[in-house]
UniProtKB/TrEMBL annotation:
Gene3D superfamilies tied to this protein: 1.20.1050.10, Glutaredoxin
Classification via PANTHER family: GLUTATHIONE S-TRANSFERASE OMEGA, PTHR43968
Domain GST N-terminal: 17-96
Keywords: Oxidoreductase, Transferase
Protein name listed in UniProt: Glutathione S-transferase omega1
GO molecular-function terms, A-Z: glutathione dehydrogenase (ascorbate) activity; glutathione transferase activity
GO cellular component, one term: cytoplasm
SUPFAM superfamilies associated with the record: GST C-terminal domain-like (SSF47616), Thioredoxin-like (SSF52833)
Family statement drawn from the similarity comment of this UniProt entry: Belongs to the GST superfamily. Omega family.
Keyword Glycoprotein: no
Organism expressing this protein natively: Glyphodes pyloalis
Amino acid sequence: MSEKHLKAGDALPSFNGKLRLFAMRFCPYAERSVLVLNAKGLEYDLVFVNLDHKPEWLFNFSPKGTVPALEYEQGKAIFDSNIINVYLDEKYPDKPLQASDPLRRAQDKLIVENFAAAQSAYYTAAFNAQALQPSHIENYHKGLEGLQKELEVRGTKFLHGDEAGWVDLTIWPFLERFLALPLMGKAEFAIDQSKYALLTTYIEAMKNVPAVKLYCLAPETHAKFTESRAKGDPDYNMLDTSAVCCMRPRKKKE
């Protein structure tokens, strides 16, 4: 599988009958869908695209030219990570990732919703530092405190339970990137173990989830890409094989 991000003028790779996800290697929203595909043990292909010089054919799968987009049959696709991930969990129910209880599913969605302000603060800190305000830092830490409180109340290893589920895989891509902020001089965004003991334990547990280990990148790698993007010249193809945990798709168990 190539790590190269295809751009305008590049040909669409041939379809070989597998699920196919159009993504960008450093996009947290695309990562959400990769993690769900991994966790479900599904066989799939990944096609990375350059979001600054989008291939013309990307719009056939995602009308707005956004990622992720999932080609579930040749020439047929759905887009948006939340829509894709719920579809995958319902289409392939062997290993459910959402809670069986409707109330718990609603509560999980509220966790994700309440975490959105922390995500927004991350984007400002990472890509628009001159606009950073004290309110961004406050919202960021409120988001972390909210996650820690949920872990305390639930009393489980993961938010989903004893194993990581939809809610964990939805939150994780941003936590993975949060760890890069101190490396970029944003010390006020550090996740201090003395303050966030339960959350840091959770983060370490998430790093060892098989679905995450297949795709995770080190904070140093995220910092390097983020700095290139903040300068207006994102280095989409910066990775070599040694920088990636693993990018091979997992095969669905028979």
